[in-house]
Write a structure and sequence with these properties.
COMT_dimerisation; 395 residues; protein dimerization activity; Rossmann fold; 51% helix; O-methyltransferase activity; transferase; S-adenosyl-L-methionine; three-stranded antiparallel sheet
Length: 395
C-alpha cells in the first residue's frame, strides 16, 4: 500500500493542467470501484456533515492555529486559544482528521496539511463561507421548490429557490447589498473560483483583430478611441490584464459596473478608467469601442434579461458595424462529459438566479435571438471549466 501511495504522489506531482484534473477524476473513479453500497451511502449521505464541521473549524480558528504553529498542537492547546471546551474540540478534531483536513500525529495531537493550509487563508475561508451562507441554504430547499413547481425550473429572478430559502423577493445581488457579511463572502468566492493560469487573452487573437479593425476604421488609432470596455467588470482585473499584455496598443480601456462596486474597488491605474454603468440601461459609450467584453455576467441572468443586456451593446456597435465586437467570456457546457466543476456551477445558477450555464449551441441560440447579432467564432481557453471566449458581431 505504501508503494501505491508513493506512486500516486509522484504522479500527482508530475501532473499539470488538464492531466491533473484527469488524474483527480481517475482517482475518484478508482475509489468508487472499491466502495460497497454501504460505503456509498456513508459518503453521499454524510457529505453535508463535512461542510458543517469545516464551518465549525473556521469559526473556532482551528485551521489558522495549526497553520501558524511550527509544531503540532494538542486538543487542550486549541481549546485554550478558541475558548471552547476541550471535549468538544477533541470531537471536532477527530472528525477533521478522518476527513483528511488535519493530520493526527499523536494522541489528541494534530498537525497541518495541505487542506489545513488552504482554509487557513482568508480568501479561501471567505469563499467557503459564501457556500455556507449563500448557496447551501438554497440547495436544501431545491427538491421541495421543484416539486411545488411541477419540476420546472423557474426563470423569475424574484422567485428563485434562494428567494424561498431566505424569505425574500429581492434578486440575489440586491439581497447581498442588505447583508454585508454575505456580500463579502460572495466577493471572496468570485476572487478564487476561477483562479487559474488560463487567460482568455492567450486564446483569442486580440491584437490581430485590433489591427484588422483599425484598418477598417481608416487606420485611425489614437488614445481618444475606445479600445476595450469591460461591462460589469467588478474590480477591473480584466482591463488591467489587457493593458499588461498589450501596453503598446492605443485607446481607452474602461471598466464599467455599479457605483457601489466601483467604490469598493482599489483605485485603478492611470491607463484604466472607471465608469458607472447599469447594464440593463442604455450604454453610456455611444461610439462603438473595438470590444465590449462580458465575463461571467450573462450566466447570472435568464434569457430575457440577457437579451436586454446584449441589445444595449448592439446599439453601440451599430455605429461601426464592421469594426466592433462583443466578447462573451463564459462556460460553454459540453454536450457530453461535463465535469463536476461545470455542473456544480450550473446548479448554483438555477437555485440562486433562475439562470443557467449554457452549451455552445444554447449560446448561439441566445445571441441569435437578439436582432442584428450573430455568434461568429468561439475559442476554448480552459478545458476543465469549459471556458470559452465567444466573438459576437453585427449580423
Amino acid at each position: 500500500m505504501d508503494d501505491i501511495a508513493r506512486c500516486v504522489a509522484d504522479f500527482a506531482e508530475a501532473a499539470k493542467g488538464k492531466s491533473r484534473h484527469k488524474t483527480i477524476d481517475l482517482a475518484h473513479a478508482f475509489i468508487q470501484t472499491l466502495e460497497t453500497p454501504a460505503d456509498i451511502l456513508q459518503r453521499v449521505g454524510y457529505s453535508h456533515l463535512q461542510t458543517t464541521v469545516t464551518h465549525l473549524a473556521i469559526d473556532l480558528k482551528i485551521f489558522e492555529q495549526l497553520a501558524e504553529e511550527r509544531g503540532p498542537l494538542t486538543d487542550v492547546q486549541i481549546a485554550a486559544a478558541s475558548g471552547a471546551e476541550v471535549s468538544l474540540i477533541a470531537r471536532i478534531n477527530r472528525c477533521l482528521a478522518s476527513y483528511g483536513m488535519i493530520d493526527a500525529v499523536g494522541l489528541g495531537t494534530y498537525a497541518p496539511n495541505k487542506v489545513t493550509r488552504t482554509f487557513a487563508q482568508e480568501a479561501f475561508r471567505g469563499a467557503f463561507m459564501h457556500m455556507v451562507l449563500n448557496v447551501v441554504p438554497a440547495w436544501m430547499q431545491l427538491p421541495q421548490v421543484l416539486a411545488d413547481n411541477n419540476y420546472k425550473a423557474t426563470h423569475d429572478v424574484g422567485k428563485t429557490v434562494l428567494n424561498r430559502a431566505f424569505g425574500t423577493s429581492l434578486p440575489f445581488f440586491e439581497y447581498l447589498k442588505q447583508h454585508p457579511r454575505n456580500m463579502q463572502a460572495a466577493g471572496q468566492y468570485m476572487g478564487v473560483w476561477r483562479d487559474s493560469e488560463a487567460n482568455w487573452l492567450n486564446a483569442y487573437p486580440f491584437e490581430e483583430e485590433v489591427k484588422r479593425m483599425t484598418a477598417l476604421r481608416g487606420n485611425v488609432n489614437s488614445n481618444d478611441e475606445i479600445l476595450f470596455v469591460d461591462v460589469g467588470g467588478a474590480l477591473g482585473h480584466q482591463c488591467q490584464l489587457v493593458r499588461q499584455k498589450f501596453p503598446h496598443l492605443k485607446g481607452r480601456v474602461i471598466n464599467q459596473d455599479l457605483a457601489e462596486m466601483l467604490q469598493a474597488a482599489p483605485p485603478p491605474p492611470d491607463d484604466v478608467e472607471f465608469m458607472v454603468q447599469d447594464f440593463f440601461q442604455p450604454q453610456q459609450v455611444r461610439e462603438a469601442p473595438m470590444f465590449f467584453y462580458l465575463r461571467n455576467v450573462l450566466h447570472d441572468w435568464p434569457d430575457d434579461s440577457c437579451v436586454t443586456i446584449l441589445s444595449h451593446l448592439r446599439d453601440a456597435l451599430l455605429k461601426a458595424p464592421e469594426s466592433a465586437k462583443i466578447l462573451i467570456d463564459e462556460m460553454a457546457v459540453p454536450e457530453f462529459g461535463a465535469s463536476r466543476y461545470v455542473t456544480n456551477v450550473d446548479m448554483v445558477m438555477m437555485t440562486g438566479f433562475g439562470a443557467k450555464e449554457r452549451t455552445l449551441a444554447e449560446w448561439r441560440i441566445l445571441v441569435g435571438s437578439v436582432k442584428g447579432l450573430k455568434l461568429s467564432r468561439s475559442f476554448t481557453y480552459e478545458n476543465q471549466l469549459s471556458m470559452e471566449v465567444m466573438e459576437v458581431e453585427i449580423a
